[in-house]
Amino acid sequence: MSFKWVLLILVFFSGVISPAIAVAQDLHERGIRTEWVVSEIDLLEEQNNPSVDGTERTIKSDGLVMQQRLLPPSAAKLTEAITDDDGDTVAQAGDELYGVLAGSGRVYCLNEKPEINPVGALFVGAVLQAKCFKDVDGDGVFDGSFKKKLGNGFFPQLSGKHRKKLRQISGGSFETIDPRDLKRAYYVAVKFEGRGFLGLASSRFFSVEFGGDDASSELTRQYSTKGDDLPSTVEISGLGASFTVLGFEDDAIRVRIDDPFDEQPFAVSTRVTIR
Prior knowledge:
Blueprint lengths: L1 E8 L21 E3 L2 E7 H4 L5 E2 L2 E5 L3 E8 L3 E4 L3 E3 L4 E3 L4 E7 L3 E5 L4 E2 L1 H7 L3 E8 L8 E6 L9 E3 L7 E3 L2 E4 L8 E9 L10 E7 L4 E9 L7 E5 L4 E9 L2 E8 L5 E9 L2
Antiparallel strand pairs: 1-24, 2-10, 2-15, 3-6, 3-24, 4-5, 5-23, 6-18, 7-10, 7-17, 8-9, 8-16, 10-11, 11-13, 12-13, 13-14, 18-19, 19-20, 21-22, 22-23
């Protein structure tokens, strides 16, 4: 049995990067769905990466050719701590949350490292879950909480329905913020993989990487140059990005960015093959 990460090309754009999350008409009343969107924000330039010089970059093996930030449709910050019905604090004032499309009310999930479900871990290995809150009546105060399994590793991708009865909480007032102001960032990137197995190939290989501060994953499909012919243009299908390899420098390459990633929704799925 093998697993493959597959890019989903999504075509829904309603509510993308708006200051307040909209109700998703196609969802069940308890339905939720994350909608991460590729933004124009170039994280390599934001980090003042020394390999960046205009649109030309020198990339060493395992380095990133391009890296753009993924943004949720909305974001929020707690102005009051949240406690559960036992009086334990589950979120602090100042904690940030990313917005989730919802069939009713407003749903936000903590923008933090996901936690492991201890019950699931006993039977099927590590099951990561997000801690989410729902403002049922839209008054700016969360009315209950729930936890939801992440679809793909540490990347916060959620879908399905939340539990019928929300967990009771106290506190939980919040204010909306610009998604670009979230301190914890997620991204999609092109990674330079070098010259393949044992470094003997003449072609240079690349993969699409996605993730955040805690961990990253790669799509199964790889891209490559045509041998060592120069210049060599590489197109990343489905994401609209392209770049041209201009030269080879020991274990590095010099590239020109022709087109960044398209600004579009981004999601991945796992394809399981049983042999």
